[in-house]
Amino acid sequence: MEEANQSVVSEFIFRGFCDSRELQKFLLLPFSALYLVTVLGNLFVVLLIIADSHLHSPMYFLLASLSFVDFCLSSVTTPKLTTDFLKDNKTISFGGCMSQILFIHFLAGGEMVLLVTMAYDRCVAICKPLHYSRIMDRQKCIWLALISWIIGFVHAISQLAMILDLPFCGPRIVDSFFCDIPKVIKLACVDTHALRLLINADSGVLAVACFILLLISYTYILVTICLHSKDGASKALSTCTSHITVVVLFFGPCIFIYFWPLSITWVDKVLSVFYTVITPLLNPAIYTLRNKEIKNAIKRLISQHKNTKCNF
């Protein structure tokens, strides 16, 4: 009886992004390039903000934190995805699968809370500019970032705890390219209907709470700017576009995958690629391309590099 309760599956097999061997070989280079650009882009933003004293403010500290989270989130799934393009047998150990689930929910949960923190920072900066330096001091900023990591970790542990002891004793083919709870839980040898509702509720509370807080923050920002500036509407949109774009790109696919009642495999895979591969790539681009201070910091960096070369 004890043996029956133990998991006898030592590894899972990914079905992968697609079935065509030729298409997988073709996708290897683009996905490898996307991952390389994601890593370089996010690390560049982090190092630039650390190196340039003009960017030592709460907003850029939070932006550096977001870039670091995106770098880590992309690294959980994309390297495995790209190497699997070369394999016929796309396996992952049971421990590796559980680790993927843990880190994906840890980083994604942390990013949700971090986006709320960034919205709060913008809300204070725009709506209470005279009190900004007092409200968003360095210590508070560090604590807010730390809280996002703590909430992400607690969320990930709660998700993992619900599936870790499930018996996996038969089917082991995961119809995806990484271990995602909705796909893995289907392979359990017991009825998981109630557990799936509980897991979705757990994720839903965090996602919906963060989304509502984001809506409240940006609505308050937009209303405040519209009421206190002559060109209110256009200025409000230009101020918040970057943040709102990132929020939509991140929350959109997650909400669709976890809460849409119908599961369409190819749609789920495309959306999974979007929030694990594309979104971490787009975030630094969205913020840097629309941010004058970041552009000026890059110019200063280039100028310093040229001056250093001239001295030699």
TrEMBL record:
The record gives the membrane topology as:
Multi-pass membrane protein
User: What would be one Gene Ontology cellular-component term for the protein?
Assistant: plasma membrane
Q: Please list every transmembrane segment annotated in the UniProt record, as residue ranges.
A: 27-51, 58-78, 98-120, 141-164, 205-228, 240-260, 272-290
Q: What highest taxon heads this organism's lineage?
A: Eukaryota
Q: Is Disulfide bond tagged as a keyword?
A: yes
Q: GO: which molecular function terms?
A: G protein-coupled receptor activity; olfactory receptor activity
Domain G-protein coupled receptors family 1 profile stretches:
41-287
* KW Transmembrane helix (keyword) present: yes
Q: Which SUPFAM superfamilies match?
A: Family A G protein-coupled receptor-like (SSF81321)
Q: Signal peptide position in this chain?
A: none
State its location(s). Cell membrane; Membrane
Q: Which UniProt keywords apply?
A: Cell membrane, Disulfide bond, G-protein coupled receptor, Membrane, Olfaction, Receptor, Sensory transduction, Transducer, Transmembrane, Transmembrane helix
Any idea what job this protein has?
Answer: Putative odorant or sperm cell receptor.
Which family would the database say this protein is a member of? Belongs to the G-protein coupled receptor 1 family.
UniProt name for this protein: Olfactory receptor
Organism per entry: Muntiacus muntjak (Barking deer)
